[in-house]
Design goal:
The complex is a heterodimer of chains A (696) and B (241).
Chain A (H helix, E strand, L loop, with lengths): L1 H7 L3 H33 L6 H18 L4 H24 L7 H22 L16 E4 L2 E4 H23 L1 H11 L1 H6 L4 H27 L3 H17 L5 H21 L20 H11 L23 H21 L2 H18 L1 H7 L7 H14 L5 H22 L4 H19 L10 E3 L13 H24 L1 H11 L1 H6 L4 H27 L1 E3 L8 H11 L4 H20 L4 E2 L2 E2 H19 L6 H18 L28 H11 L3 H9 L1
Antiparallel strand pairs in A: 1-2, 3-4, 5-6
Chain B lengths: L7 E16 L2 E13 L2 E5 L6 H9 L6 E6 L2 E2 L5 H6 L2 E4 L11 H6 L8 H11 L1 H5 L10 H14 L4 E5 L7 H16 L3 E6 L3 H4 L4 E6 L2 E6 L1 H12 L3
Helix pairs in contact in B: 4-6, 6-7
Classes of the chains: A mainly alpha (696), B alpha/beta (241).
């Protein structure tokens, strides 16, 4: 639309004004979305990655009411904002409940699980083949402001943003409820001690956040149309504005939104042709789509250093067991043997899917040292894998050197990303890596010089004694490769480096005081982890005989993290389980008999359900920081231990004190005169009794 | 029990009976029996790790006992949420600084309005006793000195008209002069008829204010008496004798 304006616009000034108006409108939407994010973050301590998805659902709901059911626009908006969004806020509160005090990884995983589930849910409700357009408020009527035509919709958007800014300021700082919201974040138990009900306060802030998300979704849907992923990630752009506000200041968030909106509008308006200085097959135009992530990255780099935590160690429910070589050896042999059998019996299509599962498992394995041991979050592992795939597709044509190149390239890219991101931790690191993933998807992997077509052909690895041209042989080869990578990770855990990683996760401050170089350790683990991911990407490209950029999009990083966490980030077996889970979501629907049901087919139904699974599992099982495999292991061990116990001791695991106090006799019954006597005795200032009590 | 004048001992305001509590699988209270008579100041003393703070947390509703009962004015309150207890008149000032560091002094005071007093009333009470807080009303609480923060925390004890005040390690990290000043306020609050359970590791100052004292060691109450009775015994309890 802007492109057309630029070409037909009368003068440079008019163009400039038009772009500026567009920028301010965008800024308004970004501000509304970002302020919702800031409100929930400051009041619940949870950065809601699903915020954009809530906005997307809000826009769809508005469409349903206004366009499909033909309710008046204002009424529809009121229903969405006043009823549906707050209700959804209640749901969010239930989902996020119990996440205070858990590690950042767990918080990130739960909200990313929600994001992923909602993105997959929308197309199930609203068929993506349909056309959904949302009319502007008051149609296309325009007012003339300094020669630029401004629609009423745009004016309303700007006005709404201003009202939101003032209202939020008033709510958070001027009302008791707002002060309570901030108090709960500051010190939850103290807030309770001052009579605040944290659940109620969280519910208020989630509702408020959902309302703001939905509002931004409704306002932007007119321009963008309704498409689940695009709409979700448009709101994700607002993260950049929120980060400018350090996730706490609404004023700075507004400033960030204005810079972001204008920057985006001007680049889209003025950057119409690829500049002549760009090398052949490289295009700068794609930069227009990544302005928000570039700004997010820049804003993160300008963040001040996070102070090292000095108050005690981070409480965490995560338990990282030490692997043993014996177990690793048994596991390796069993995995390869089972894969060999599987390779012989399953169908051709299933071989490929299971192979993909093993490749996913290797990419997830890269998260074990990084996140499981080192406590660093990355949302770009699949992107690193993409660099690996690019390397095998480009260099050394099927030679082992291609794999080496893949590991080195991905490792180097990992180190380059890590360098600026090193100072960041927790949520900011997650955002920075996600920004990098988007940048790579939209800008780097979009260059014709790198990927002339989206799928670049790859020659499968050629080894001296084994012929890998058959998919079934390649599947066994993948199992062997997973085993090798797994053994490397086990070795890492048992090495001094693994110990350093674990120490860094437990207490960065203690490590620093022990003279450990945190920066170098982080850099090393990032590069190593990216290298493993690149290895997985290279093998994946080999399996499919193509490096397909569609498999390395930013969105693909989400199920990888989700399923890795569900499997268990601290163990090699967890990564394997995660990879195979992910593959099974494609595999199982294929085995379902196909028949018509509920106006669709059974297989389509199961496919829909399975598309939701990574998200749903992330929300539920992702809460357990030790993962499914560890959980099963712990349950088995407990059974064994209990079975070994004397039956009489089975009832309680608490150490039972053999000496029961006489005074504890009055438990669980009303207060009686004898109790008063007893109490008198307890509080009695009778020297003899007191002395007896001490000696007893 | 009749020897102490001015104290009604018929129904203790707070009573713990056979309270056991555990962190995960580790039991730290092995059957605590303790009573705070109405209007009395009871000091809970004992060495590090004796279970004093845990006992207080159980009283405040921050922890649920695994066994035994907690009674507030004769009503069993096991499992009551801390916010419910706060509304019932149990004012808990936790260990460290019981303030919200990222809220201003005034906003901190506004958090004390749950008991029914309006913000201006709360401010009047707080500023009258602690004029220094009035000067700092729009400053973030976290940027004040430790003593000022503790004063702000104590203002809650004054402003919310509690029936029971639970104080944890009031003196922690503060200069002796400030500690004395704070205990003068405790005495002042006690004089209005509020029952107080105060946990302290260092006993001298608190014994000057308390009606009774209990000594805790290894998750049990080992001795109860008046301050005078206990002063002599204290050193042995601390040295594990």
């Amino acid at each position: 639309m802007l492109a057309v304006l630029a070409q037909t616009g009368a003068g440079a000034l008019e163009n400039f004004l038009t772009f500026t108006v567009f920028g301010v409108v965008l800024a308004s939407v970004y501000f509304i979305a970002a302020s919702g994010l800031v409100v929930t973050y400051t009041t619940t301590g949870i950065f809601n990655f699903a915020h954009g998805a809530v906005g997307m659902l809000g826009a769809f709901a508005y469409w349903q009411l206004h366009v499909r059911w033909e309710l008046p626009a204002l009424l529809s908006a009121l229903i969405v904002l006043g009823v549906l969004a707050p209700l959804f806020g209640f749901v969010l509160e239930r989902v996020m409940r119990g996440l205070e005090g858990v590690s950042t990884v767990t918080k990130v995983v739960v909200s990313i699980g929600l994001l992923f589930a909602l993105i997959k849910l929308a197309p199930i409700i609203w068929d993506p083949k349909g056309s959904y357009s949302v009319p502007a408020f008051f149609g296309t009527d325009k007012v003339d402001i300094f020669g630029a035509g401004v629609t009423y919709h745009q004016l309303i958007t700007i006005g709404v943003a201003a009202v939101v800014a003032l209202a939020l300021r008033w709510i958070l700082f001027g009302t008791r409820a707002g002060v309570s919201m901030r108090a709960v974040v500051d010190n939850r138990s103290l807030a309770q001690l001052t009579g605040t009900r944290p659940a109620r306060v969280s519910m208020m802030s989630w509702s408020l956040g959902s309302m703001l998300a939905a509002l931004s979704g409704i306002l932007i849907a007119e321009r963008l149309g309704l498409e689940a992923t695009a709409l979700t990630f448009l709101v994700v752009n607002a993260y950049a504005a929120a980060v400018v506000g350090r996730l706490s200041s609404l004023t700075l968030t507004a400033l960030g939104a204005v810079i972001l909106g204008l920057a985006q509008a001007y680049t889209q308006g003025y950057l119409q042709e690829n500049p002549s200085w760009m090398p052949e097959n490289w295009s700068l135009l794609a930069i227009r789509g990544v302005i928000p992530v570039l700004m997010l990255f820049a804003a993160l780099l300008l963040m001040p250093n996070a102070p090292l935590r000095t108050q005690g160690i981070q409480r965490s429910r995560e338990i990282v067991g030490r692997p043993t070589w014996r177990l690793a050896a048994i596991g390796s042999v069993v995995l390869v043997a089972i894969t060999a059998v599987v390779a012989l019996v399953v169908s051709d299509a299933d071989v490929l899917t299971i192979g993909m599962g093993l490749c996913f498992a290797i990419v997830m394995l890269s998260l074990v040292p990084l996140t499981g041991y080192g406590g660093q979050i990355s949302l770009a592992q699949m992107t690193f894998a993409g660099f690996g795939a690019y390397a095998v597709a480009t260099w050394f044509d099927g030679s082992v050197l291609g794999i080496v190149a893949a590991i080195l390239l991905a490792g180097a890219v990992g180190a380059i990303v890590a360098l600026p991101a090193l100072r960041l931790s927790g949520i900011y690191l997650a955002l920075a890596t996600l920004a990098f993933a988007f940048f790579t998807e939209k800008f780097i992997f979009n260059q014709r010089a790198l990927f002339p077509t989206t799928a670049k052909p790859v020659r499968r690895l050629e080894l001296p004694f084994v012929d890998l041209s058959s998919d079934r042989t390649y599947l066994v080869f993948l199992a062997v490769m997973f085993v090798l990578a797994g053994l490397l990770v086990v070795w890492l855990r048992l090495s001094p480096f693994g110990r350093r990683l674990q120490a860094m996760k437990d207490s960065p401050a203690a490590c620093a005081t022990l003279g450990m170089n945190l920066t170098r350790t982080k850099l090393q683990v990032f590069a190593l982890s990216a290298g493993i991911a690149g290895f997985g990407g290279a093998l994946m490209a080999g399996l499919q005989r193509a490096a397909d950029t569609n498999q390395f999009t930013a969105l693909q990083n989400l199920p990888i993290l989700l399923m890795a966490v569900v499997g268990g980030l601290t163990m090699v077996s967890g990564a394997l389980a995660g990879g195979l889970f992910l593959a099974s979501f494609t595999l199982v629907p294929r085995w379902i008999p196909d028949f018509d049901v509920l106006g669709t087919t059974s297989r389509a139904l199961v496919e829909d359900l399975f598309a939701l699974l990574p998200g749903l599992l992330g929300i539920t099982l992702g809460r357990n920081p030790n993962g499914a495999v560890a959980q099963i292991g712990a349950a088995l061990r407990e059974r064994k231990e209990r079975a070994a116990l004397d039956p009489a001791e089975r009832t309680s695991r608490l150490p039972v004190d053999p000496v029961a106090d006489l005074e504890s006799a009055g438990v669980d019954r009303p207060f009686t005169d004898e109790d008063v006597e007893l109490l008198d005795r307890v509080l009695a200032i009778d020297e003899a009794e007191v002395a007896a009590g001490v000696t007893a | 029990m009749s020897s102490h004048e001015g104290v009604d001992h018929d129904v203790p305001l707070l009573e713990l009976r056979g309270v056991r509590a555990a962190y995960g699988r580790i039991e730290v209270l092995h059957g605590v029996d303790l009573a705070v008579p109405e209007g009395a100041v009871v000091a809970l003393l004992g060495p590090n790790g004796a279970g004093k703070t845990t006992t207080l947390n159980v009283c405040a509703g921050l922890m649920e006992p695994t066994q035994g009962s907690v009674y507030l004015a004769g009503r069993r309150i096991n499992g009551a949420a801390p916010d419910q207890l706060a509304r019932l008149g149990v004012c808990t000032i936790p260990e460290g600084r019981g303030v919200f560091p990222n809220l201003t002094v005034r906003e901190n005071l506004s958090m004390m309005t749950f008991s029914g007093r309006s913000l201006p009333e709360v401010e009047a009470v707080a500023y009258e006793r602690f004029p220094r807080l009035a000067e700092r009303r729009s400053q973030l609480a976290g940027t004040m000195s430790g003593g000022e923060q503790q004063m702000l925390a104590m203002a809650r004890g004054l402003a919310t008209d509690p029936a029971l005040l639970l104080l944890d390690e009031l003196s922690m990290g503060l200069a002796p002069l400030i500690v004395e000043e704070l205990y003068a306020i405790v005495a002042q609050i006690a004089a209005t008829g509020v029952s107080i359970l105060v946990v302290e590791q260092f006993a001298r100052t608190v014994l000057g204010v308390a009606d009774y004292a209990a000594i805790m060691a290894s998750g049990r109450i080992v001795q109860v008496g008046t301050p005078a009775d206990l002063e002599a015994e204290l050193s042995s309890a601390y040295l594990g004798g």
